Amino acid sequence: GAVVSQHPSWVICKSGTSVKIECRSLDFQATTMFWYRQFPKQSLMLMATSNEGSKATYEQGVEKDKFLINHASLTLSTLTVTSAHPEDSSFYICSARIPGLAGAYEQYFGPGTRLTVT
Amino acid sequence: DQQVKQNSPSLSVQEGRISILNCDYTNSMFDYFLWYKKYPAEGPTFLISISSIKDKNEDGRFTVFLNKSAKHLSLHIVPSQPGDSAVYFCAAIEGGGADGLTFGKGTHLIIQP
């Protein structure tokens, strides 16, 4: 159980275009999903918390107008990188918690999406 | 300012021996800690976790120890196997579990045959 998928696994886009990344919980419903970013040889950095039916909460320094998050259903959250620039090239990973389990703080991660902006 | 620190970028251990990965934290509000294993170009895989009310949690070959007074935790893997070679991330979360995880920079564990 607790499988999270992401699509696409990798994408190359031109500077100035927008890219949408999907994150799905396959065998459970996730009221909360999280989006992280990892640069080469760096740690995973939390970008935002995605809540079903409400606005996402962004971490300090993350532009909410650039990284649009939509949590449309209990199994799907999307991250859209708008007007992408080469410095947005990174590894984007989503995660989800299994709701309702007391003390269950574990987050289950998707396989990640490698974004390259040329 | 890194709240979760893994000071060893890499660690080499002989197959069959014990691997000990260390993690320190500065935020006293953290009350739940997790270890993840990660291969390149893949998402992290959850290994084991520990609540701040405990000082040890064991799951098969993996044991996590927590020393709250020292703000230090460690992951022990015994015996180490070649498939354990990966990057290991320590992560922490504040009370309630509703927030995202704060990760360390990771330790690359290499198991030598």
Write up this protein.
The complex is a heterodimer of chains A (118) and B (113). Chain A has no helices and 11 strands. Helix content of chain A is 0%, strand content 52%. With 118 residues, chain A is mainly beta. The termini of chain A are far apart. Chain A is globular, with a radius of gyration of 14 Å. In chain A, strands 2, 4, 5, 6, 9, 10 and 11 form a 7-stranded mixed sheet that branches. The mean pLDDT of chain A is 91. Chain B has 113 residues and is mainly β. Chain B is 0% helix and 56% strand. Chain B contains no helices and 11 strands. Chain B has strands spanning 4-5, 10-14, 19-25, 30-38, 45-51, 56-59, 62-67, 72-77, 86-94, 102-103, 107-112. In chain B, a hairpin with a 6-residue loop joins strand 4 and strand 5. Chain B starts with a strand and ends with a strand. The mean pLDDT of chain B is 94. Chains A and B meet through strand 4, strand 5, strand 9 and strand 10 of A and strand 4, strand 5 and strand 10 of B.
Q: Which features characterize this protein?
A:
heterodimer; A: mainly beta; seven-stranded mixed sheet; B: 113 residues; six-stranded mixed sheet; five-stranded antiparallel sheet; 11 strands
